[in-house]
Design brief:
The complex is a heterodimer of chains A (about 950) and B (about 220). Chain A is mostly beta strands. Chain A is globular and about 115 Å long. The termini of chain A are far apart. With about 220 residues, chain B is an alpha+beta fold. Helices cover about 30% and strands about 30% of the residues of chain B. Chain B is built from six helices and twelve strands. Chain B has a six-stranded antiparallel β-sheet with strand order 3-2-5-7-8-9, with no helix packed on it. Chain B is elongated, with a radius of gyration of 39 Å. Classes of the chains: A mainly beta (about 950), B alpha+beta (about 220). β1 (about 20) of chain A pairs parallel with β12 (about 140) of chain B. Chain B: It holds the Pfam family EMC7_beta-sandw. Chain B: It is a single-pass membrane protein. Chain B: Its main location: membrane.
Chain lengths: ~950, ~220
C-alpha cells in the first residue's frame, strides 16, 4: 500500500498542472446528457411518496436511465445501462404509484433503482432478452406490504413470464410455455396477469394470443386468441398494449390504418372503429395514450397522424359491460402534435402540444380546461425548418375543477428536450448532442472574412489597397455607436475581472471557435467554445430513414467552413457561423498532382494497403491469426517548435521527426497478444514494434502518436514478469541517443521519405496505471512550443485526465536518482506506478460519461489548447499545459494593482511637501 | 420448466458471490452520500469483467463468480479505494463448493505479493472496505499573503534598515545630553570606529608607503 502513496505524494510535491479552484466550473463546460428520451419510458414521478415534488424519469435511446429536475432541467442522477449505444434499443422503465423505486428493463437485466438518488435496489438477469416489464398493482389485499412486485417477459430460447419480488429482486414464480409462440408483451390488471403472445399462422400472418395467469401462483387460468386469421400481417400494426389501468386493452389496426380494433384484455369481444380520413393524406401513425394508474378512469386517447396533420379521439370503457365507446374527438390541426396523459386522483387529463399551443382537456368531456399559446420553443433550428413536438409527458396541477398549471417535457424534432410551463419554455436540454459521432473545431466565418480582407490589402496594389482600407474603416465606423454604448460596461467588467470574453467577432485570444457536431440521426449542431451555454445553430443535414445509419466525418478544411464527408456525399460545405450550406464546386488543386503524389493508405479486408497514384506502394499484412485493432496516424497539423530536446548541460538530443508516422495495433485472439507497430506510412517500414502477451482484448486498447512520441495502454493478465492490471506505455523516437549527434542523417544534405534508411532509436517505458484508458488524445497549441499533455479518457471514473508529458517521459532515470543535469531538465526517477493525481482531472468534480472521442484545437494564444470531448456527454475546456505564460490569469488581481498605484500616488503627494521642507531647512538652518 | 429452474438454482448455488460493504471512515464519514455512479469492477482473466453498481445499503454485490483470480477496483467520484485481489477456487475436497478469498494487493508489484487478508468464505464472502483517501481536485493559487510577505528575509532586512535610518537619529535627538556624550564616547572607543579603530586604520592605510617598503 505504501508504494503508491509515496508515488502520489511525490507527484503532488511537484505541483503538477492542475485545475485551479477559481477556473473550475467557469472555463470548462459540460452538458450532462441522457440521449433522446423515448415516449414509453418517460414520465413524471414522485421519488418520495410523502412529498408532492416530482422528477422526470427517462430511459433514453442511448440506454441511459436518469432523473431530471423539472424546475431547471438539471440531471439529479443517471445510470448508464448500455455501454454500447444501440439505436432503437428495446428498453422499459416503470414506476409503481407511490413507490420510491423505478424499475428498468434493458437487454436481459431487470433492475430497481432508488428514485431519489439512483442507487441500485436489486438487479436480476433473466434468461433471454426482455420483451416487456410491468409493475403489478394488485388491489385485493394480496399485494405485499413493501415494494410492489414487477413482472417481466423475456424472450430467447426459453421465453418466460416471471414475477419479481419488489423488495429483494428474487423470482417469485415463473411461467414458461411450450410451442413456438413469440412473446410480445405483458400486461396486468388488478386481478390478473396477461401475457400477449404472437402466434404465427401458416400463411405468415400473426395472431394475438392472450394467456391469463394467476398473479399469486403464476398458473395459467385461461388462453384465447383475439385477432382473426389474416388480420395482422406483422406485429408492427399493433398499436398498444395497455397495462396497469383499470381495464388493460390491446389495440391494433389493419395495415392501411383505416380500422382500429380494441380488445379489453380478459374478454373476447373486439370493438371495431373506422378511422376517418380527414384529408387526402393517409394515416401514418396511430398511438394510444392511456393513464398508468389502476384507480384512474378507464379512458384512453387515440392519436392519429398523417404527413401534414394530426387529430385524436377519446374513448371510454364501460367496465360493467366491457364496452368501448367513442366519447369525443379533438379537432384536426396541421403539423405534428404530441399528446400526453396526466392524472389527478381518478380524473384523467389529456394535454395536447402542437407547434403553437398547449391545451388541456379532461377525459370526461371535450371542454378545454386550459389553453396557452406557445410563442416559440426557444431552440435553434435550421433555416426554414419548423420545430415540431415529437412526444411529450405532462404533469397537470388541479385547483378545484380547473387546471392551474401544466408542465410538459416535450421532445422536439430538433432533438431538444424542452419543458413548457403553461406554454412558455423553462429549460431545454440539447439531447441531440448525446448521439454525436463526429466533431470538429472551426474558425468562425467572421474571423476568416477579416483575415481575407487583410490579405487582400496586403497583396493588392497600394492605391486600391488604400481605398479598400479606408472603405473598411468607414464601414467599421458604423459600429462606433454600439461600441461607445457598451464601453462603460466593458470598463466596469474589466475592473471587476468578470469580462466574459465578448462575442465571436471580438475574440482576441481565439477561444471562440465553433464546434460542429454531426449526430447519428443526421443533424449538424454547432456550439461556440467560448460561450457554450447556447446552441448556435442546429439543422438536419441528412435525411435518414428509420434504422438507417450514416458515418459522417466532420472537418474544417479552411477557416469559416465546415465540411461533412460521408459515404453518401463527399464534401458538403457549411458556413461555420450561420450553418448556411455553401454551394461550391469541388475544389481541384491542379498543382498538387504534379509536385507531390500523396501516399494513400487504408485498412482493406483486414490488411493495410497503401497506394501512390493507383499503384500499390506497400502492403502490411498482419501475422497469421492477427487482426488490426486500430491505426492512429500522426496528426496532420502537428507543429513542432524544436527539432531537439535540450539537455541539462545545453547539449541537444535530436528528435526523430517524420510527418508520415502511424501507430498500428494488431491483436491475436488465440494467444491473447497485442502487437504495436510504429510505421513509416510512405515507405511502409516498421520503425518500432513491441508485443505484449496476456492482453485482455475485450477491454479498450487505446493509442496515440504525436510529434516524436507515442503512447498506448492496455489491460494485461498477471505473468511471471508483469503484474495484473492496466498498463500505459510511452515511447519516444530519437535520431540518435548520443547528444549533439544526428546519427546517419548529419552527413546527408538531402532527405527523402521514400528512400530513407535511417531508423530511429526508441526509448519506451511502461507504467502501471489504476484504470483502463478508453481513448487518448493530445493537446495542440499554435506553434508547439508549449509542452504537451496526454489526454486520457477514463471510462470507469467518468473522467478525462491530462497527463503531463514529463510524467511519462521514457527518459526518466531507472533505479537511480537523476543527475544534476537531468534534474535541470525536470526528469525524475522512474517509478513503475503512475497514479492519476485528481488535480489532473480536467473535469474535476463533474462526471463525464460515455466519452468516445476527444478533439483538440490550438487557440490564438500559444499557451492554450481547446479541448472538446463527446460521446454521450459533451464536455469542453481550455488547457494551458505550461501554465498561462502569455496571458494574465485569474490570479492577476487588477484591483490590488490599482490599489498599489493609488497608495503610491497618495504617498508621493503626502511626502513631497515634507521633503521640500527638509531641503529648504537643510539650506537655511545651521546647527 | 422445473428442470431448468433447478438447473438455474444449482448453478447459482455452486457459483461464488461476493458482497462488499463500504464502512464509514475518516475520509468518508457517511457512505450514504456516495454518488450513485460509484461502482466496482472485477477483472478476471482476459475477457472477463464484472461491473456492479452501488446499492442502497452501501454495498456492492457480485453474484455467480466463476473460478479465477480477480482484481477488484472500486471507482467513486470523490474517493479512492484500495485495490483488492479476489480469488475464487474449488474447495479441494468438496466437489460443488468454492472458496472465495480477498486480499489487499499492490499495483506495480507481482501478483503473488498479497497484502493483509480481507476475509475468506465458502461460496459467499462478505468483506468490508473503507475509503483510503479523498480526491483533491483543485489547486489553490498562491494568493497575496500579508504575513508571508512580511516574513520574507528581504523584507525583514529592509524593515530593519528602515528602522535604523529613521529611528536612530530620532533616538539620538531625544537622548539627554549626558547619555549622548557617553554614547559618542563609546562609539569612538569601539573597535571599528574612533581614531584607533580598525576601520579608521584601514581607511588611513598608506598603500604607497607599504608598497615602497616603508616601515
Amino acid at each position: 500500500m505504501r508504494v503508491p502513496w509515496i508515488a502520489a505524494t511525490f507527484f503532488l510535491a511537484r505541483s503538477a498542472l492542475a485545475v485551479f479552484a477559481d477556473e473550475a466550473w467557469n472555463v470548462d463546460y459540460h452538458y450532462a446528457l441522457l440521449g433522446l428520451p423515448k415516449q414509453s419510458t418517460s414520465f413524471f414521478h414522485q421519488p418520495n411518496p410523502s412529498s408532492r415534488a416530482s422528477l422526470i424519469y427517462t430511459l433514453s435511446e442511448e440506454g441511459v436511465l436518469g432523473a431530471v429536475n423539472p424546475r431547471d432541467g438539471s440531471v439529479v442522477w443517471r445510470q448508464l445501462l448500455l455501454s454500447e449505444a444501440l439505436a432503437y434499443n428495446v428498453s422499459f422503465l416503470r414506476a409503481g404509484e407511490g413507490q420510491d423505486t423505478v424499475i428498468s428493463g434493458i437487454g436481459s437485466q431487470v433492475a430497481a433503482w432508488s428514485a431519489a438518488d439512483g442507487r441500485q435496489a436489486w438487479i436480476l438477469d433473466t434468461a433471454g432478452p426482455l420483451q416487456d416489464v410491468e409493475i403489478l398493482e394488485l388491489s385485493d389485499g394480496r399485494e405485499t406490504a413493501g415494494a410492489k412486485d414487477a413482472i417481466a417477459l423475456s424472450g430467447g430460447e426459453h421465453p418466460a413470464v416471471v414475477r419479481i419480488d419488489g423488495t429483494s429482486g428474487a423470482i417469485k414464480w415463473q411461467y414458461q410455455w411450450d410451442g413456438v409462440d413469440q412473446p410480445y408483451q405483458v400486461s396486468a390488471s388488478t386481478t390478473e396477469v396477461f401475457a400477449i403472445l404472437l402466434h404465427k399462422t401458416l400463411l405468415g400472418y400473426v395472431k394475438l394470443k392472450v394467456v391469463s395467469l394467476d398473479p399469486v401462483t403464476g398458473r395459467k387460468t385461461d388462453e384465447h386468441v383475439v385477432s382473426s386469421e389474416n388480420e395482422l400481417a406483422s406485429a408492427e400494426t399493433i398499436v398498444s398494449v395497455g397495462a396497469n389501468s383499470a381495464s388493460p386493452i390491446v389495440a391494433w389496426t389493419n395495415s392501411a390504418h383505416s380500422v382500429l380494433k380494441v380488445n379489453i384484455l380478459g374478454t373476447k369481444e373486439i370493438s371495431s372503429f373506422n378511422i376517418e380520413a380527414h384529408d387526402s393524406h393517409a394515416v401514418e401513425r396511430v398511438e394510444i395514450h392511456a393513464p398508468y394508474h389502476t384507480n384512474s378512469l378507464s379512458h384512453f386517447l387515440v392519436h392519429y397522424e398523417t404527413a401534414t396533420s394530426h387529430w385524436a379521439d377519446v374513448f371510454h370503457i364501460d367496465l360493467k359491460n366491457s364496452k368501448i365507446e367513442k366519447a369525443y374527438s379533438l379537432p384536426k390541426m396541421t403539423g405534428k402534435g404530441a399528446f400526453s396523459t396526466g392524472t389527478s386522483d381518478a380524473n384523467v387529463f389529456f394535454t395536447r402540444v402542437t407547434r403553437d399551443q398547449v391545451m388541456t382537456v379532461s377525459s370526461a368531456s371535450h371542454g378545454v380546461l386550459g389553453r396557452w399559446a406557445v410563442a416559440g420553443f426557444g431552440v435553434a433550428a435550421g433555416p426554414g425548418e419548423s420545430v415540431e413536438p415529437v412526444h411529450a409527458v405532462s404533469e397537470v396541477s388541479i385547483k378545484g375543477t380547473s387546471v392551474s398549471a401544466v408542465r410538459s417535457a416535450v421532445l422536439l424534432s430538433t432533438g431538444d428536450w424542452v419543458l413548457l410551463r403553461d406554454g412558455s419554455p423553462v429549460w431545454n436540454r440539447p439531447e441531440v448532442l448525446a448521439s454525436t459521432v463526429s466533431a470538429t473545431f472551426a474558425i468562425p466565418a467572421e474571423v476568416q472574412e477579416f483575415v481575407q480582407q487583410l490579405e487582400a490589402e496586403a497583396h493588392g496594389n497600394p492605391i486600391s489597397a488604400y481605398i479598400h482600407r479606408v472603405t473598411r474603416h468607414l464601414q467599421d465606423l458604423q459600429k462606433l455607436p454600439a461600441i461607445m454604448a457598451s464601453l462603460p460596461q466593458r470598463i466596469v467588467q474589466g475592473f471587476l475581472g468578470t469580462s466574459a470574453d465578448g462575442g465571436i467577432a471580438s475574440d482576441s485570444f481565439g477561444f471562440h471557435q465553433i464546434i460542429a457536431c454531426a449526430t447519428r440521426d443526421g443533424r449538424l449542431v454547432a456550439l461556440d467554445a467560448g460561450n457554450p451555454d447556447k446552441v448556435l445553430w442546429n439543422q438536419q443535414v441528412a435525411d435518414l430513414q428509420l434504422g438507417q445509419t450514416w458515418q459522417p466525418s466532420v472537418s474544417s478544411p479552411e477557416g469559416g467552413i465546415i465540411e461533412i464527408n460521408s459515404k453518401a456525399s463527399a464534401g458538403v460545405r457549411y458556413n461555420a457561423s450561420t450553418g448556411e450550406q455553401l454551394f461550391s464546386i469541388l475544389p481541384i488543386d491542379e498543382t498538387a498532382g504534379e509536385v507531390a503524389l500523396p501516399v494513400k493508405y487504408a485498412i482493406h479486408k483486414g490488411e493495410l494497403d497503401a497506394t501512390v497514384d493507383t499503384k500499390m506502394a506497400w502492403h502490411f499484412t498482419p501475422m497469421s491469426g492477427e487482426r488490426i485493432v486500430s491505426l492512429v496516424p500522426r496528426p496532420v497539423n502537428d507543429p513542432v517548435a524544436s527539432i531537439g530536446k535540450v539537455l541539462g548541460d545545453r547539449r541537444v538530443l535530436y528528435k526523430y521527426l517524420d510527418p508520415n508516422l502511424a501507430l498500428l495495433v494488431t491483436a491475436n485472439d488465440v494467444t491473447k497478444a497485442a502487437t504495436f507497430y510504429v510505421l513509416n506510412t510512405i515507405s511502409g517500414a516498421i520503425l518500432y514494434s513491441n508485443v505484449h502477451s496476456g492482453v485482455d482484448l475485450g477491454s479498450p486498447i487505446s493509442s496515440m502518436l504525436s510529434e516524436n512520441w507515442f503512447a498506448y495502454s492496455f489491460t494485461a493478465e498477471a505473468s511471471a514478469n508483469s503484474p495484473k492490471g492496466h498498463q500505459l506505455v510511452a515511447g519516444e523516437l530519437f535520431e540518435s541517443l548520443v547528444a549533439n549527434d544526428r546519427g546517419p542523417l548529419s552527413a546527408s544534405a538531402n532527405y527523402s521519405s521514400m528512400q530513407t534508411g535511417t531508423e530511429p532509436f526508441t526509448l519506451a517505458q511502461t507504467y502501471q496505471i489504476p484504470e483502463p484508458i478508453s481513448h487518448m488524445a493530445v493537446t495542440r497549441t499554435r506553434q508547439g512550443i508549449t509542452s504537451r499533455q496526454l489526454l486520457a479518457v477514463l471510462a470507469d471514473s467518468s473522467a478525462i485526465v491530462g497527463i503531463p508529458y514529463g510524467v511519462i517521459d521514457p527518459r526518466r532515470p531507472v533505479s537511480r536518482d537523476p543527475t544534476k543535469d537531468e534534474q535541470m531538465e525536470g526528469l525524475v526517477r522512474y517509478s513503475p506506478v503512475l497514479d492519476f493525481d485528481p488535480k489532473w482531472y480536467l473535469n474535476h468534480q463533474r462526471e463525464i460519461v460515455g466519452i468516445k472521442d476527444v478533439v483538440t484545437s490550438p487557440a490564438l494564444l500559444e499557451s492554450t489548447s481547446l479541448v472538446f470531448a463527446y460521446g454521450l456527454d459533451v464536455f469542453g475546456t481550455r488547457l494551458s499545459p505550461s501554465f498561462s505564460f502569455d496571458v494574465l490569469g485569474k490570479d492577476f488581481n487588477k484591483f490590488q494593482m490599482l490599489a498599489t498605484v493609488a497608495a503610491l500616488a497618495v504617498a508621493t503627494f503626502v511626502v513631497a511637501p515634507l521633503v521640500a521642507r527638509k531641503q529648504v531647512n537643510a539650506r537655511w538652518q545651521f546647527a | 420448466m422445473r428442470s431448468l429452474l433447478t438447473l438455474l438454482c444449482a448453478t447459482l448455488a455452486s457459483a461464488a458471490s461476493l458482497n462488499i460493504a463500504i464502512l464509514p471512515s475518516l475520509h468518508l464519514p457517511n457512505p450514504s452520500l456516495l454518488p450513485p455512479s460509484t461502482h466496482a469492477v472485477l477483472i478476471g482473466p482476459p475477457g472477463v469483467r464484472y461491473d456492479a453498481a452501488l446499492r442502497r445499503d452501501n454495498t456492492l454485490k457480485f453474484e455467480a463468480l466463476p473460478e479465477a483470480s480477480y482484481l477488484l477496483t472500486i471507482y467513486s467520484r470523490d474517493h479512492f479505494f484500495p485495490p483488492l485481489r479476489v480469488d475464487v477456487s474449488k474447495v479441494t475436497d468438496g466437489a460443488e463448493q468454492q472458496t472465495i478469498e480477498a486480499w489487499q494487493t499492490f499495483r506495480g508489484n507481482e501478483w503473488s505479493n498479497k497484502g493483509s487478508p480481507y476475509g475468506s468464505g465458502t461460496d459467499a464472502l462478505s468483506i468490508q472496505i473503507q475509503a483510503s483517501a479523498q480526491k483533491e481536485f483543485y489547486q489553490t493559487r498562491g494568493g497575496f499573503d500579508m504575513l508571508g510577505f512580511l516574513k520574507s528575509p528581504m523584507i525583514l532586512m529592509g524593515l530593519v534598515s528602515v528602522v535604523f535610518i529613521f529611528g536612530l537619529p530620532y533616538i539620538m535627538d531625544n537622548m539627554d545630553p549626558e547619555m549622548k556624550q557617553e554614547f559618542e564616547e563609546m562609539q569612538k572607543k569601539g573597535p571599528l570606529t574612533g581614531s584607533q579603530g580598525a576601520a579608521t586604520q584601514m581607511q588611513n592605510f598608506d598603500v604607497a608607503g607599504w608598497l615602497a617598503g616603508k616601515k
